[in-house]
Amino acid sequence: MAKTIIITGASSGIGSGMAREFAQKGYNLAICARRLDRLESLKQELESKYGIKVIPKVLDVTNYDQVFEVFRAFKQEFGRLDRVIVNAGIGDGRRIGKGSFAINKATVETNFISALAQCEAAVEIFREQNSGHLVVISSMSAVRGMPKHLTAYGASKAGVAHLAEGIRAELLNTPIKVTTIFPGYIRTEINEGAKPLPFEVDEKTGSRLLAAEIEKAPVKAYVPKWPWLPPYPVKMARKNRSASPVTWSTRMVNRSNSRSPLAMTGRSAASAAS
């Protein structure tokens, strides 16, 4: 019997990209986002090409009651859920103290509170089944506090990473697995207009690498591995001889601190705004 995956924010970007990758592997898919027309088109494509079952549903992840309703409906229609990928999010952000509180608030609520709702809904089902795999998409901007446009965005993605770590700690020695993914720069339709970034990969490559790592069900993964996988040990931070390592990943994230978080892909183009 084919296994089933929920992917939120699946209407475009790495959300739809991962859906294509997992469809190719034979998974049935529960796909959700705000743009039903795109989901219906993706359903037709994947069912005709791979002979799998795809059910699309409208979901605005900031509607928390709807998150629980949609996840439960997927569970009822498929019979069981084997994996939930918490992918939906937004990449907007503004400098702190510049009169853009509403934008930063929306970013944090969508990326963190909405992720909490998705994790709650998923783990509730996994506890009932006594099995499942929760996958949370964070970002390389979560590895340390970020300045300028990335401050609120990076903080929201750091919160998501810690949320997943806490859930994993509670569920150790159970059949429920939890994975945190830290994507680097992946070019999607949401950042088409952004300047080229160092070490970026295209959407298809990024989606393929994400799906490959998720299949391994690691505790955490950096995608692509190079140059984002932190090398240890590395030289100590110069100031105060801090124990915090200076890694390739933190160097590259620092170089992006004056750029829009839309260029970072802890978010998919298939976000809650999708």
Describe what this molecule looks like in 3D:
The chain is globular, with a radius of gyration of 18 Å. The protein has one domain (4-263): NAD(P)-binding Rossmann-like Domain (Rossmann fold), CATH 3.40.50. It has helices at residues 13-24, 36-50, 64-78, 101-129, 151-170, 203-216, 225-228, 248-255; strands at residues 4-8, 28-33, 54-58, 83-86, 132-137, 176-183, 186-187, 201-202, 220-223. The model is unreliable at 233-274 (pLDDT under 50). Helix content is 43%, strand content 15%. By secondary structure, it is an alpha/beta fold. It contains eight helices and nine strands.
Query: What's the CATH architecture?
Result: 3-Layer(aba) Sandwich
Shape: globular
The main β sheet shows up as: 7 strands, parallel
Find the count of extended strands (DSSP E, 2+ residues): 9
Low-confidence stretches: 233-274
What is the average of the pLDDT values?
82
Number of helical elements:
8
Count of the separate structural domains: 1
Question: Gap between N and C termini, in Å?
Answer: 31 Å
CATH topology value = Rossmann fold
What is the string of SSEs from the N terminus onward?
EHEHEHEHEHEEEHEHH
Specify the helix fraction band: 40-55%
- Measured on Cα atoms, how large is the radius of gyration? 18 Å
Q: According to CATH, what is the class?
A: Alpha Beta
The portion of residues forming beta strands comes to: 15-25%
- Strand adjacency order, main sheet: 3-2-1-4-5-6-9
CATH homologous superfamily designation: NAD(P)-binding Rossmann-like Domain
Structural class: alpha/beta
